[in-house]
């Protein structure tokens, strides 16, 4: 199997918004390790073009999503500078079938690594927590894939937006934060932080442990999207998305061609 060739193909689809067949159609025995190597290769292409690694995302963090994929642990993906929306507008160019999901983002102030990390270590390394919305988009036809396919496709990473206001990690029970997502003025999803592995801090713990297996630590200044608080919702041109995060305020954007 040519990891670099597959990474090039996925990278081209991530840039152009062109759909592709699942990698496992050609390589049914693709392993988790090989899939992460493909993911790394794809993101390296973006970095070679001038993009920067700015953080990490966790996916498959809800029990329901893990059961539906037949897995017992989450997956991670890589976030780059060009994925972050700096204006409240999602442009559809380069996207295939985007879906949005509310998340809580941790921003780190200290390096975090190792296989024995605890929630207390995460709190000590966290600068602030921010409301966030992730836009996921699979490069595979019909948003259909196996676990290793989606790992190779950077865990469906596409775009994300975080709030302007960061909050102290210590003064909020993040598992109890209620979230309500509206599309075009109607509530379409509700949930609470506990949907993310019981508590979003556990998602960061899991990420650190998974990265440690690959010899990676999280660098200061990195953003970590901890996982979806509700099911993802499809968006198309003209939609207006607003997410209310209990006492933390709201985050919104509109979708344009
Ligand atoms: O961010 C996510 O939870 C997505 C993980 C990959 C699975 C999917 O695309 O639904
Ligand atoms: Mg997500």
From TrEMBL:
A single cellular component GO annotation: cytoplasm
InterPro entries found in the cross-reference section: Fumarylacetoacetase-like_C (IPR011234), Fumarylacetoacetase_C_sf (IPR036663), Hydratase-Decarb/MhpD_sf (IPR050772)
Name the record gives this protein: 2-oxo-3-hexenedioate decarboxylase
Tree of life domain: Bacteria
Keywords recorded for this protein, A-Z: Lyase
Lineage per the UniProt record: Bacteria, Bacillati, Bacillota, Bacilli, Bacillales
A single MF term (Gene Ontology): 2-oxopent-4-enoate hydratase activity
The keyword Transmembrane helix is annotated on this UniProt entry: no
Residues covered by the Fumarylacetoacetase-like C-terminal domain: 95-256
